[in-house]
Design brief:
By secondary structure, the chain is mainly α. Helix content is 71%, strand content 0%. Helix 10 runs antiparallel to helix 13 and helix 12 runs antiparallel to helix 13.
Length: 289
């Protein structure tokens, strides 16, 4: 089919617009990466767009990796991401399966109450008081339990579960399977795409969580990498990273950028491995019955 001139013009401007969006989105990451490996003195003198590093050094990364707070922050973050995501998936799947069943008593009322929480929340202070009264302040559970289920992600997963043919579930029940067997042996294996997408969503939320640790954690040994990075960024002290005063102030800027790269790179590397599930899972979750 021959394309009209109007369609060619639309495609041209569409490509131009997408290229501009990619450039605007990509340049901050490129700037941070280039700044982290640039020569400290040249970096301070640079006042233009930095498409390539100004010189080259890896001293900033050496100082960052020598800091024990970085390793401790990484380990804490990995624990929060892995344990938190597993709890999120389990709790969300249980709730989504139950609410996806049309014969559940009070289903409509429960859905209205759950949906209500998407628009109206208690706020920061009531949430803190709740966590405090539960005795979870300054514990690892405070990073996992309060956000066990995201209402938005729950609705996506419920919609995905509702797309599974009801005849398949009824056949399993006729064979004697209970709801737990149906969920773990039939529904979840058929929902790998949506589980992969939910895993990415929850994992990124845990990795980037900043407000939660600020509110609920007091001990530095429990701090995730985001809080450790904040301390490094606002301290403006090369001594705090073990660089010493003789190294000069300039390397402190490189250390800040290197810390940002080290704290964001792992979660960015995860995305390509589940990218093939991403579009498929998101579309499945968006289908309305």
């Amino acid at each position: 089919m021959k394309r009209s001139s109007g369609e060619h013009i639309f495609d041209f401007f569409n490509v131009i617009m997408l290229c501009c969006i990619i450039a605007v989105s990509f340049y901050p990451m490129l700037y941070v990466l280039n700044s982290s490996i640039s020569d400290p003195d040249q970096l301070l003198r640079s006042r233009s767009l930095m498409l390539l590093p100004e010189g080259f050094q890896l001293e900033a990364y050496k100082y960052v990796f020598q800091n024990p707070k970085i390793y401790n922050g990484y380990l804490n973050t990995l624990f929060y991401v892995v344990a938190g995501t597993l709890v999120n998936l389990l709790m969300t799947a249980l709730a989504a399966y139950a609410l996806s069943r049309m014969d559940l008593f009070g289903r409509k009322t429960l859905m209205q109450l759950i949906t209500f929480t998407m628009f109206f929340g208690g706020g920061m202070i009531p949430s803190f008081l709740l966590i405090q009264n539960l005795g979870l302040v300054d514990t690892r559970l405070a990073m996992i339990i309060p956000g066990a289920i995201s209402t938005f992600y729950f609705l996506i997963m419920k919609t995905s579960f509702e797309s599974i043919p009801i005849s398949l579930i009824e056949s399993a029940k006729l064979d004697g399977a209970n709801d737990f067997l149906i969920l773990f042996r039939i529904v979840l294996p058929l929902s790998k795409s949506i589980l992969a997408v939910m895993s990415l969503y929850y994992a990124v939320d845990h990795w980037n969580d900043y407000v939660g640790p600020m509110l609920y954690l007091r001990s530095q040994e429990l701090y995730p990498i985001q809080i450790v990075m904040r301390d490094i960024l606002i301290s403006s002290s090369t001594e705090s990273m073990g660089a010493g005063v003789d190294t000069g102030f300039a390397i402190g800027e490189n250390i800040k950028y290197a810390t940002i790269i080290i704290s964001t790179l792992p979660i960015m590397l995860v995305y390509p491995f589940i990218q093939r599930f991403f579009v498929q899972g998101a579309l499945i979750g968006a289908v309305k019955q």
